[in-house]
Design brief:
By secondary structure, this protein is of the alpha+beta class. It is built from 6 helices and 12 strands. The longest helix has 21 residues.
């Protein structure tokens, strides 16, 4: 409330008052530290889109920023508009609260959950799964096993593969059966195979078991017969 002095045209002694709702209310940032902690899951309304992210109102007068890199684990987002629009209600996780600078960092992808958390258990080495080709590179095919989880089928593996599958003809969107060769959850990398192991014969060291067994028995029998004659 502000006193503006005597009003023109008013009776002597009357004054004008200017009321400010904004000034009458408490600053919402004074209680932010008590209301929001790192790791809290919140729901808010998208109020503004920028090239670098989206501002989400998680409480009256309190906005947080979801950086474009924190919008999805499932796919790479170039612009916030690819995922959300002004007015959308979204779930997010509080990443960091800076009361002094009045900034809150939010993550939409953490609210959905990181698909790599149980990848090692879900895709054990040796398992055969069906995936979808994302893109082809000179060194191999990137194949999506599920949203957010992509593995690489190396070109060197495909070039040695034999069978009905024509790997050089596969393109984005095609499905293919692959095997899990290795999983590195720290680096978020999965190496894939064709699911078929090529047999490599080393003839120098090869000894047919059935033939060895038969000849061994015959040799033993002859040895026993000679002993008896002697």
């Amino acid at each position: 409330v502000k006193y503006l002095g005597p009003s023109a045209g008013k009776k002597p002694g009357e004054t004008r008052l200017s009321l400010s709702i904004k000034q009458a209310l408490d600053d919402p940032w004074k209680t932010v530290a008590d209301r929001f902690k790192d790791g809290d899951k919140v729901t808010g309304k998208v109020v503004k889109l920028m090239d670098f992210g989206a501002f989400v109102e998680i409480a009256p007068g309190i906005e947080g920023l979801v950086h474009v890199s924190e919008m999805s684990y499932a796919k790479r987002i170039n612009k916030p508009g690819e995922v959300v629009q002004v007015g959308d209600m979204v779930a997010a996780v509080v990443k960091q609260v800076d009361v002094e600078k009045q900034r809150i960092s939010l993550s939409m992808r953490d609210a959905e959950g990181d698909p790599w958390l149980n990848v090692a258990e879900k895709y054990p080495v040796g398992q055969t799964v069906q995936g979808t080709v994302e893109k082809r590179q000179q060194f191999g095919l990137f194949i999506s096993l599920e949203p957010g989880v992509t593995g690489l089928l190396p070109q060197s593996v495909m070039s040695r593969a034999e069978g009905e599958v024509k790997y050089d003809k596969l393109g984005a969107g095609d499905t293919v059966v692959v095997s899990i060769e290795s999983v590195n959850t720290r680096e978020r990398k999965i190496s894939l195979g064709t699911g078929k192991k090529e047999e490599v014969a080393d003839w120098k060291g090869y000894k047919p078991q059935a033939a060895d067994s038969g000849m061994g028995s015959l040799g033993s029998a002859l040895a026993e017969a000679l002993k008896k004659k002697n």
